[in-house]
Amino acid sequence: MDVSKSFLVLFSALCLLARCPQGYAQDNGTVRKMVEKGNESYAAADYQAAETAYKDALDENPRSNTARYNLGNSLFKQNKLDDAIESYTPLKKDADVAFNIGNTHLKKEEYEKAIEAYKETLRKNPSDMEAKANLTYALIKLRSSQNQNQNQNQNQNQNQNNKDKNQDDQNKDDKDKNQDDKDKDKNQDDKNQDDKDKNDKDKNDKNKDSKDNKNQDNKNQDDKDKNKDDKNERQDKGGSKQPGMTKEEAAYILSAVESNEKKTQEKVQKLKAEKAKKEQPEKYW
171 vs 78, 176, 180, 193, CA distance in Å? Predict the structure, then answer.
């Protein structure tokens, strides 16, 4: 920011060109020549050369207030503002020096320090209209800066609140997602357990069926073996030809069986006839 231009627009009576204090002690010939050389460079806007000349004068005489004050002015023109304040400070009890210190702080936008410097100028010279004008301007800039900072802080707080809310929402979403994932994993675990139980049941059923089939096969085999044994037994009881029996022996046995059966039939018929005779009613004469 070009302080001098800003002030000239706002305050027509301002004079920001550094003012030289009165009553400084006269320097010796050598120091005076160095200061004059610096003043010529300053007037030609060669502020770097002016700075060098004033520093040479201070090397010759560190107590030269004129060289020190003008050095501060040349530094101010080069925007070496911190160095300018350092050069002015030993002379700040002077009203004009305090005024220049105020201008330097104002250019740095250090409004509170500028206000204090202008107040110091007015304490020493209450009729200084330039100091009053610059003090008013510094107060306006301070108030504007404070409002801007307040708005900026409010915006930052709002942004932070929004950021915190977004973070809370994000955390809630993450928590919900984690819970969903947890529920999903639990459901998957339950499904896996159900599948395992089903597989175990199917396996047990299969083993039971296999065992039952095996038992049925064993039972069928036992029944088969039993039927075979029964058949063999019936064959044994059926009068199969004995080993070594001749044809004549077999015919004799058959004839004996038939003879016995005939005798048995005759005996049965005889018994039936006797019984019938006993049951016949007697005649009455």
Answer: 54, 8, 14, 32
Q: How far apart are CA 20 and CA 100, in angstroms?
A: 10
**19, part of any domain:** yes
Cα distance between residue 139 and residue 218, in whole Å: 115
**Closest C-alpha to 135, from 150, 117, 147:** 117
Q: Could you tell me if residue 53 is inside a domain?
A: yes
Asked whether the beta carbons of 55 and 36 are under 8 A apart, the reply is no
Question: How far from 223 is each of 104, 209, 217, 227, 276, CA to CA, in Å?
Answer: 125, 20, 10, 6, 53
Tokens for 260, please give them.
């016995």
Cβ–Cβ under 8 Å, residues 66 and 19: no
CA distances from 103 to 38, 84, 87, 158, 201 (A): 22, 11, 14, 36, 96
Q: What count of other Cβ atoms lies within 10 Å of the Cβ of residue 115?
A: 21
Residue 22 has pLDDT above 70, yes or no: no
Let me know the angle formed at the C-alpha of 66 by 64 and 70, rounded to the nearest 5 degrees: 125
pLDDT, tens digit, for every residue of 186-214? 878 888 888 887 877 777 767 666 666 66
Is residue 72 within 8 Å of 99, Cβ to Cβ?
no
d(CA 226, CA 244): 29
End-to-end CA distance of the chain: 182
Domain residues for the domain of 125 are 3-147
Task: Note whether residue 251 is domain-resident.
Answer: no
